[in-house]
Amino acid sequence: MTKLNTSYLGLTLKNPIIVGSSGLTNSIDKIQKLVDAGAGAVVLKSLFEEQINHDINKQIQGGHGLDYPEAMDYIAGYTKNNSVGEYLQLIADAKSKFNIPIIASINCFSTHEWLSFAKQIEKAGADAIELNVHVVNTDKYTDAIAIEELYYSVAENLNKALHIPFAIKMGDNFANIVGVVNKLYAQGAKGVVLFNRFFQPDIDINELKLGSASVFSTPADIRRTLRWVAIVSDKVKQIDVSASTGNHDGEAVIKQLLAGATTVQVCSAIYQKGPKVISDMLNELSYWMEAKGFKDIEDFRGMMSYRKIKDPVMYERAQFMRYFSNME
């Protein structure tokens, strides 16, 4: 009998599959279906500081509170408290109903709001927080280090303010991913999520409008994460690595664990195939472990990581010449 339990951010999970932050996790009814399918943990849909501020501006621009500055302050405060309050209630309800870790998610852009939201989330009972930080830098005079420092500052401040663990969900657009992860660990982060899927613009050439590209990942996107999961899990051993993006079946879960992932986040596959895909992934993982003679996940986790394979340069290779040089 195989054992699928694992530990992530100091939390005990019955298996390594986590449902990623999305519309799949924004209500108790939806979370119930994910729990029934076997999810090891869920990351709640993000609390967006940007969305809250948008709602505030929408109320004010609609004519509410324009006559009196005090009224404007009241409308802003009410809208923010109402939005945050609904999120805190979701956390409390999920914690009271389900016996799996409930991880909150914050998507903000100002240090002050990160701390304000995070403290309230901790008080509401969340087991951990996943922090979604990303800055699109369009200033040609800004040094890359200035962007990195934002991440370090946020991690440091959260570490001082919270008692629950937190992970940083980051993109792959850093010059030194390993160095960034190492510094995040030094500032108190217990885990990193590799990688985020950001909004990607697309152009409609007929309507001449800017829109959004597909929000879903594809199985091929696992290549984005597999390399860095294998490298980071070896280079920064003290931090937990959650593999996100491109995980569409049990084989992808197995690959990420072999590379060294602590947990595997699933989202797009559930949207496309329904919650049952979680059960299918767990069954495939169990069958594979039995066939290979592995009793628990620690028996093989990281077996194919950067330092464990005979030729770690394979994870460093960036050019195709070796493979395509003989092709005409």
UniProtKB/TrEMBL annotation:
Signal sequence residues: none
Catalyzed reactions: 5,6-dihydrothymine + NAD(+) = thymine + NADH + H(+); 5,6-dihydrouracil + NAD(+) = uracil + NADH + H(+)
Cofactor(s) it depends on: FMN
Alphabetical UniProt keywords: Flavoprotein, FMN, Oxidoreductase, Pyrimidine biosynthesis
Enzyme Commission number: 1.3.1.1
InterPro entries: Aldolase_TIM, Dihydroorotate_DH_1_2, Dihydroorotate_DH_cat
Pathway: Pyrimidine metabolism; UMP biosynthesis via de novo pathway
A single GO BP: 'de novo' UMP biosynthetic process
Function: Involved in pyrimidine base degradation. Catalyzes physiologically the reduction of uracil to 5,6-dihydrouracil (DHU) by using NADH as a specific cosubstrate. It also catalyzes the reverse reaction and the reduction of thymine to 5,6-dihydrothymine (DHT).
Subunit organization: Heterotetramer of 2 PreA and 2 PreT subunits.
UniProt xrefs under PANTHER family: DIHYDROPYRIMIDINE DEHYDROGENASE [NADP(+)]
Protein name from the UniProt record: dihydrouracil dehydrogenase (NAD(+))
Organism in which the protein naturally occurs: Saccharicrinis carchari
Lineage of origin: Bacteria, Pseudomonadati, Bacteroidota, Bacteroidia, Marinilabiliales
